[in-house]
Amino acid sequence: MSALLSAGAKGGDATGSNVRSELDIAVSKVKWRILPLFVVMFIANYIDRVNIGFVRSHLQTDLGIGAAAFGLGAGLFFVAYAVFEVPSNILQQRFGAKAWLTRIMFTWGVVATGMAFITGETSFYVMRLLLGVAEAGFFPGVVYYFTQWLPNSERGKAMAIFLSGSALASVISGPLSGALLQIEGGGFHGWQWMFIIEGAASIVLCLVVWFRLDSHPRDAKWLTDSERKALAEVIDAEQKEREANRPKHVSSLALLKDGRIALFCFVYFAIQLTIYGATFWLPSIIKKMGHFSDFQIGLFNSIPWLISIVAMYIFASLAARFKHQQMWVAIALVVAACGMFMSTTSGPVFAFVAICFAAIGFKAASSLFWPIPQGYLDARIAAGVIALINSLGNLGGFVAPATFGYLEQKTGSIQGGLYGLAAASVVAAALVFLTKKRRR
């Protein structure tokens, strides 16, 4: 009897070990298949969203679009993005990630290409609004995709890799856009060629997305039956555990009214406010440093984002080792606040150095933020709430450039806006501690 029990225990251990092995293999395959694709998609997405920062002076010279109009147009993207993001994420659940994410990328590529044919302020506003409608749902759609394909223990790492796409895009977009701006011919100016080429690249990438992406693990023919089963069992078990820890009969509306959801929205709003304030106005700050070509401005523009990539991984490693996600987000936000404040104290060269320092904070805060709401939300409403947080938070992308443009046109300086970014980061650093989940 003792021998039989011993053999049974060993058999059980072997079975558990085998299941774990199948899960590890499945997770590894998922990460290698989808993460590089999502990073490339995010790079294309980010470039098409922010490349107008490099053509501000060209739009003013060729089309008469001034600072206030430029800031408003840059920000209108985020208004449309906020309005249409939640419906877009709901439609993704209906049509599946493969079809919907491909649709998102195709339409934003078409609109981004169409930016080459704007003729003045009105068409500029319309195309930026349409670009926001087209892109709406991409980011939260990918975040939700992770909840369907990866266990909890892997999502934080996947998010860090995915978010590195925006930092890589910021590094790439400067030299790339600067080089494309030097193209002349075919009846188009350099800024038009930039929009055409960068938008067309997104359209071509749609083919890769369509053939590479699957909507659900059950559709993945590149996984074995046992790997699909192991992955599905773990993800289903984690969802049941989240449901068990929630009050019974909780409605989606009740969760959406949760005070922590409002805090998540504000903290992310403050992060995005600073990111897009720097993104859209950094090329103009660099231009004041000296007589540089568009390509040289693009090279300088890459420096803060290159630094931020290293910072994101250092902060992520520290947060993984010393477990207190809210504390690390707060530290990153304080670093961002200090950098933005210092950028107001001297000339354009010092301002550029200070923004390099600020980038360490606001990009690290962006990647460290998402595991907090992900760990709090029930997967049954995760897609809608993640979209809500992202869309309302991204309104910082409207407020920052619109305010900066107005201030520059009225006062000739953006110093007041930089003070505002520093203050918002300090407030968010304090409020992020209120998102800590209390023990019941």
From TrEMBL:
It is a multi-pass membrane protein. SUPFAM superfamilies: MFS general substrate transporter. Keywords: Membrane, Transmembrane, Transmembrane helix, Transport. Its main location: membrane. GO terms for molecular function: transmembrane transporter activity. The chain crosses the membrane at residues 30-47, 67-88, 100-119, 125-146, 158-181, 193-213, 261-282, 302-320, 327-343, 349-370, 382-404, 416-434. Residues 34-440 form the Major facilitator superfamily (MFS) profile domain. PROSITE patterns: MFS (PS50850). InterPro entries: MFS (IPR011701), MFS_dom (IPR020846), MFS_trans_sf (IPR036259). It is found in: Membrane. GO terms for cellular component: membrane. It holds the Pfam family MFS_1. Coiled coil: none annotated. This is Major facilitator family transporter. It comes from Collimonas fungivorans (strain Ter331).
